[in-house]
Amino acid sequence: MVKLLGIDASTECCSAALLLGDKVYQKLQIAPQGHTKLLLPMVDELLQEHNLALNDLDAIACGKGPGSFTGVRIGVSMAQGLAFGADKKLIGIGDLEALAYKAMTDTNLNKAIAIIDARMGEVYLGIYEKSADKLKALIEECVVKPNEAHDIIAKTIKDESFAICGTGIVTYSEITFGLANLIRAPQDLPQASSIVLLAKDSGEALDPELVLPQYVRDTVTWKKVGEQ
Question: Which of 132, 137, 155, 172 is the most exposed place for a label (fewest CB within 10 A)?
């Protein structure tokens, strides 16, 4: 029986999940801050409830971003620490991919668009399709302005039906204006439950130090008040 632990702290949804065979058990809390205090108790509770220790796991998985810079670092570094301590491999899963996977499951579609609010007037955008239970990116994950996201989506979907989800379309409703064939999925934040399911079939278990945060936005630009 496959035993995987997954954690995610990339957004305000802080979560941990345990995959045992084909069943997933999850703990989560919506919290803008405090992920460092929430994650380890979640992990401990999951393991204790199923009489497991970290050494009993096959591997550990984590959301590697994009998302909050601080949250991404917390999630990846904590997963690295757990994996090092238990001498386990680590599997990094993109949070846009995890969100799209859940959208496909909820809508019974094989294509999905995931959009996470990136702040500063931008969104993280990913578009995927499912083939043989694996996801393929139809565009390179990017951080763009809402109007750019609208144009990229319009060029990609054509006449096909796509699931769509994420905090980006909650904040910027104009992204979907005038676009047909978009089916709204209910979940707008990535969760560890999707991360462990994707990790099960990823085939990319690595030494912990090789799993790195995926920021997408490499630099943060801002202006002083006098420059605005």
Answer: 132
The string of DSSP letters for 163-181 reads EEESHHHHH-GGGGTT--S
Two tokens, residue 60: 């550990």
- The tens digit of pLDDT for each residue in 21-62 reads 999 999 999 998 889 999 999 999 999 999 999 999 999 999
Is domain 96-184 in CATH 3.30.420.40, yes or no?
Answer: yes
How far is 199 from 68, CA to CA, in rounded Å? 21
Residue 205 contacts residue 89 (beta carbons within 8 Å) = yes
Is there a contact between 14 and 35 (Cβ–Cβ < 8 Å)? yes
Average pLDDT over residues 106-114: 97
Instruction: Kindly compute the dihedral angle of the four CA atoms of residues 75, 88, 23, 68, in this order, to the nearest 10 degrees.
Output: 10
Nearest to 191 by CA among 76, 123, 96, 111: 96
Instruction: For 107-139, give the DSSP string.
Output: HT-SEEEEEEEEETTEEEEEEEEEETTEEEESS
Residue 217's pLDDT band, with cuts at 50, 70 and 90, is: confident
| 126 within 8 A of 76, measured Cβ to Cβ | no
The token pair at 9 is 């702290």
Rounded to whole angstroms, how far apart are CA atoms 143 and 126?
A: 9
Q: What is the CATH number of domain 3-94+190-210?
A: 3.30.420.40
pTM score above 0.90? yes
